[in-house]
Design a protein that fits this description.
alpha/beta, UDP N-Acetylglucosamine Acyltransferase, domain 1, six-stranded mixed sheet, 15 strands, 13% strand
Length: 257
């Protein structure tokens, strides 16, 4: 019991640089308080003292703003940062070294009995306000972006963002290099917003420039074929893109300039 408490306290120090000492963690971290209440309530639930377990869970919610059903199974070194508004359903299973931020819901989409809530693998991180809904698995090491709504299984090590949640696939280094080259040719940073942010304008810009890459490749192949047919054929240089034409985009992307 005391070894488990020590692990829970150490997990706070490992994942919150604001934690200064053990006394402060024990007295001022609602995520730890909610977890300790749950450890007790879960034992009572499994011991068929369900009313008492639910009562302790309700008391913990009043004190911490975190609602964890006593039937939920939670692994070692679980950490809830800030914690207000976190809801964890009855049939949720959480692995070791999992981190949740405030406003997270691990809920269900059905009123049927049985497995209704998600299973989180080890080392999963769930951002603030995210909703994971349904009886599926979130693979080990996965990251769920803030305010995402996830309703289907997530592979190991994946990053999920958006509504509905979608897996972000890292582009090949070759594609990243071509994107960088394209933005330099155009004279502005077309990717000031990262791919992990569900911004519709940024997504549209990325799609347009990826299409331009494909068109460039096709035209280049056509020029090579023409040159083979006629050695005198010469494809001239493309006209430059004046940098000043994109100054307005730079100003809009960087407020205060």
């Amino acid at each position: 019991m005391f070894e488990g408490l020590k692990e829970d306290i150490n997990s706070v120090f490992h994942r919150d640089p604001a934690a200064r000492n053990t006394f402060e963690v024990l007295t001022n971290y609602p995520g730890l308080h909610a977890l300790l209440f749950h450890r007790l309530a879960h034992r009572l639930w499994n011991g068929d003292m369900k009313w008492l377990a639910r009562t302790i869970s309700t008391l913990a919610r009043w004190l911490t703003g975190i609602e964890i059903h006593p039937g939920a199974t939670i692994g070692r070194r679980f950490f809830i940062d800030h914690g207000m508004g976190v809801v964890i359903g009855e049939t949720t299973v959480i692995g070791d070294d999992v981190t949740l931020y405030q406003g997270v819901t691990l809920g269900g989409t059905s009123w049927k009995k049985g497995k209704r809530h998600p299973t989180l693998g080890n080392n999963v991180v769930v951002g603030a306000g995210a909703k994971i809904l349904g009886p599926f698995e979130v693979g080990e090491g996965a990251k769920i972006g803030s305010n995402s709504v996830v309703t289907k299984a997530v592979p190991e090590g994946a990053t999920v963002v958006g509504i509905p949640g979608r897996v972000i696939v890292k582009r090949r280094e070759e594609d990243q290099g071509r994107r960088k080259e394209m933005e330099e040719r155009m004279g502005f940073d077309a990717y000031g917003v990262t791919e992990e942010m569900p911004d519709p304008v940024a997504r549209a810009m990325r799609s347009l420039l990826d299409h331009m890459h494909a068109v460039d490749d096709r035209i280049e192949n056509m020029c090579k074929a023409l040159h083979k047919l006629n050695s005198e054929y010469s494809n001239g240089d493309l006209p430059p893109l004046p940098e000043e034409d994109f100054d307005c985009m730079r100003d809009e992307d960087q407020p205060g300039r």
